[in-house]
Amino acid sequence: MSLTGIIATLPETLVIFLKTFIAVNILMLHIAYVVYFERKVIGHMQARLGPMRVGWHGLLQPIADGVKLFFKEDIIPSSADKPIFYIAPVIGVVAAISSLAVIPMWDGFSIADLNIGLLYILALSSIGSYAIILSGWASTSKYAFIGSLRSAAQVISYEIAMGMSLVGIMLLAGSASLSDIVTAQQGGVFNWFIFKQPLAFFVFVMAAIAETNRAPFDLPEAETEIVAGYFTEYSGIRFGLFFMAEYAGMFIMSAMAAVCFLGGWSGPIPGVPGIVWFLFKVYGFIFFYFWIRATLPRYRYDQLMSLGWKLFIPLALANIVITGLVKIL
Amino acid sequence: MIDDNMNDRSEGVDLLSKELTLNMGPQHPATHGVLRLVLDLDGETVKKITPYVGYLHRGVEKLAENRNYMQILPLTDRLDYISAMSNNIGYCTAVEKTFGIELTERTEYIRTIVGEMSRIANHLLWLATHALDIGAMTVFLYCFRERESILDLFEKLCGARLTTTYTRIGGLKNDASPEWLEQVYKFTDDFPSRVEQYETLIDQNRIWLRRTKGIGYISPEDAINWGLTGPVLRGSGVNYDVRKTQPYGVYDKVKWEVQTAQNGDIYDRYRVRMEEFRQSNSIIRQCIEQIPEGPIISDAHKYVLPPKDRVLNDMESLIHHFVLITKGPLTAPKGEIYVATEVPKGELGFHIVSDGEGRPYRMRVRSPSFVHVSALPKICQGELVADVIANIGSIDIVLGECDR
């Protein structure tokens, strides 16, 4: 009996539970080891080794970090707005992990194949920005406050650009379900939307970096200006939760890029399992994130805003118009 | 502050009309030590900025009044701890002028070599932190790689990496071996290509240009009026370098040019320092090519410690040694003198008042960092928070020297 056959005999709730279990585990492992991956990649780019002490070539470093974060003292500023202070990092992590529900990792595997999958992800990433705003507000620290204000402005501007860059995809695929979008890209590498929508891909990549607050758009947490931005006052595992949210966000954005522009689980060589292609693309994209971080300086706040409103949003709009015209003609 | 805003809201006062007072430092990732700035912000625009210095005050000038001339030397290491060699040279030059000591030729050459090496090390640290402040992380580590080689060379020369205390009044602690000179020469072979490496990362980078061009403008008149010196002054287009105007060491015997730029913004100050890397490199090379053999300590034993073997074998030298160590030079001429040298950050001046005792009656240090910090409020006026950080980086301050 094949695997699909076994799955078909199980009750539906159990299947959903198992799928969630698998997906969340993948993501947790991802979060632990993508930090290690980042430190190694950037380390070698900067002529040093990265973690080397804990385990063979530092392989146990993420576990050591996790244990440390769990056992650190949880310091809460006396003037903080406590309930909001507690709940802000939880919102961030929940929003990031829930996005995983609609990502199709290989053919037929997504926890819930929503017909509005794209909108769902955009909505959850907006909810994620509440975590940032609330944590900055609840900390009653000026650095955290400035960091969260910057973030609010940044996320709003770049979400518009990102949403618009994905409109072209929805027009071409004729659906907002992520599985349908991948299906629409089947039949060879040149059917991938990156070749049909290069402009949208460019805008999406830039907006995705800004959306996840990564360099060169990492202004909300620009450590040399406003210390650590919105999570300056957080310590211990609450700080860890923000960290998890950021790296989960990177995974989601990379998965979106893979699904919407790079053909998802489909690959040029037949016979290779879909999950291999999917993860290959996701980690290729994450590597790109690290590469940018190691290379580029940081934008200034006003430059970031003008870039978003004056360049990316008009580009995305133009892309929609062109795609629409081509589609009609 | 946020609480104040909340109160305002309850009273119905317009929320946006309130300025935010932000305390930056003394512990802050980008204030290069313990500089404290109080910013009055309107949104992200700086309305007013007030620097508070003194968090690293150790009373170097007062300490100097209670020590003889030789004992002051280690204090100068701790002024600008990034370029201790230059400070040693600056102090010794001032004291030698006071006493009228003639230096041997080899001493002058070695001093020039280590002075320029310390300039390279200082500018490397400056570039590293300045780039990191603007967000370019990799430049930081590349610069530290080369700075490490220079510190290793310092260690081989005198045993210390940071607080070197290498010069002595009238000479040097020890001679530089031919192997050491060869290693320095080898370093200068590779170094220009490393500078090109840094430039590939940031020089034409659009983000770097947007963060530095036209930001932090200082006009040539202002630069002169505020007493700015060094690369900050030269970045505004003023051709002034103590090494050219009042040459010391062998700066008049080697070929080099004063680097200036025209626009007076952060980018131009960056360019000036990048060119100084190349000039310093070429000065070191020429010095090593020309360096003569000879003694490394002057013969004026009323002021200069005699060599150890002579102290052990010669009665007169033993007496000189004893007097100099216990009381300092007792025949010091009376009077006062101001001697400036060009350290990496600008003009470092020692104003020494001598009343004929073995210790200075008063020693005043004119430190470039202190002067540059005082110009910060004017440079940052009306710019954004992120520009304040870039400006602090571009004026290249060290608080050890600023607070003394």
Notes on the protein architecture:
The complex is a heterodimer of chains A (329) and B (404). With 329 residues, chain A is mostly helical. Chain A has one domain. Helix content of chain A is 69%, strand content 0%. Chain A has 13 helices and no strands. Chain A is globular, with a radius of gyration of 20 Å. The mean pLDDT of chain A is 83. With 404 residues, chain B is mainly α. Chain B has a single domain, classed as Cytochrome-c3 Hydrogenase, chain B (Orthogonal Bundle), CATH 1.10.645.10. Chain B has a three-stranded antiparallel beta sheet. In chain B, strands 6-7-8 form a three-stranded antiparallel beta sheet. The longest helix of chain B is centred in the first third of the chain and has 30 residues. Chain B is globular. The N terminus of chain B is likely disordered.
Helix and strand arrangement:
The complex is a heterodimer of chains A (329) and B (404).
Chain A: H1 3-9, H2 12-45, H3 61-71, H4 82-98, H5 117-138, H6 142-173, H7 178-184, H8 193-196, H9 198-211, H10 223-226, H11 236-261, H12 274-295, H13 301-328
Chain B: H1 2-11, E1 20-24, E2 36-42, E3 45-52, H2 60-64, H3 69-77, H4 84-99, H5 105-134, H6 137-158, E4 167-168, E5 171-172, H7 178-202, H8 206-212, H9 220-225, H10 230-235, H11 242-245, H12 266-290, H13 308-313, H14 315-326, E6 335-343, E7 346-354, E8 362-366, H15 368-380, H16 385-395, H17 399-403
Antiparallel strand pairs in B: 1-2, 2-3, 4-5, 6-7, 7-8
Helix pairs in contact in B: 3-4, 4-5, 5-6, 5-12, 5-16, 6-7, 7-12, 12-16, 15-16
Taken in chain order, the helices and strands of chain B follow as HEEEHHHHHEEHHHHHHHHEEEHHH
The helical percent of chain B reads 40-55%
- Secondary structure: number of strands of chain A: 0
CATH class of chain B: Mainly Alpha
Q: Biggest sheet of chain B, open or closed, and with what strands and sense? A: 3 strands, antiparallel
Strand order of the largest sheet of chain B: 1-2-3
Radius of gyration of chain A: 20 Å
For this structure, the quaternary state is heterodimer
Cα distance, first to last residue of chain A?
49 Å
Please tell me how large the radius of gyration of chain B is. Answer: 23 Å
Q: How would you describe the shape of chain A?
A: globular
